[in-house]
Design goal:
Number of strands: 17
Distance between the termini: 13 Å
Strand content: 25-35%
Structural class: alpha/beta
CATH superfamily of the largest domain: Medium-chain alcohol dehydrogenases, catalytic domain
Length: 307
Amino acid sequence: MKAIIANSYGDPGSLELGELPEPKVGPDQVLIRVKAAGVNPVDWKVLAGYLDPIMYVHFPLVPGWDVAGVVEKLGEDVPEFQVGDEVMGYVRRDEVQHGTYAEFVSAPARTLARKPASLSWQQAAGLPLAGLTAYRSLQRVGLASGETVLVHGASGGVGSLAVQIAVAQGARVIGTASERNHDFLRSLGAEPVTYGDGLGDRVRALAPEGVDAAVDFAGSGVIDVSQELLRDRTRVASIADGEARAKGAHVVWVRPDAADLTALADLADAGKLTVPVDTVLPLAEAAEALSLSQKGRARGKIVLDVS
């Protein structure tokens, strides 16, 4: 099969399009013919070696944890799926080597859900990791209907999904973004504010009594600003601040969860969640896709088209 391969740690330019054997399929796994693979910042961080202290990474490495595709083959004990099912998944194992930037990937059934009929292959591939991260972050801060949540980095891949999920849950959403993305946030149901100096005052102008919860997908010290605005300083979660725990915030490292992924699929098919896609590139241009991800300026998801 064709796959994107790294033979050692490096930058996106070290990636090559090559040939690998078709993956083995374990008893609790399915073989997926990949239609599209989502690109996430963690992909280039794995490639750069940043996760080496906490995860075993083996070479040759195929990057990627997000996938959408068709079930090609079943393991011995996978009653959840049938050959031909359209699925999506956050295919993260405990050790990193056999990723989704390939024509085929074997995936544990526990990492998969059925693809929403309302989403394209590219949108479905962009949903799992970002959607589950957004969903879990909102769970960690205990967001409830009628509350106000501040979403930092609201126009990005994770933030744009968090906005929609919070709106679907009946929350009021204030989202930070550059001014060029304000109309985009309004289209998702958020009230936009510009990030940077004076952010606290701008949020107070919209919510004089403060906010109930905050989620940080941007970093850059926004936990401190959030805690000044929160009625309960503990109701903030972050995926972007290395000092989050020391600051009293929840740290989110999302797990594969078929039930939560199915809940996101249900929101999509109910018309309450879509996946903004910024850029679609062919598999052979994975290096360019990771370089774009490193710049951190995408409005929505970057996706590789494998079909």
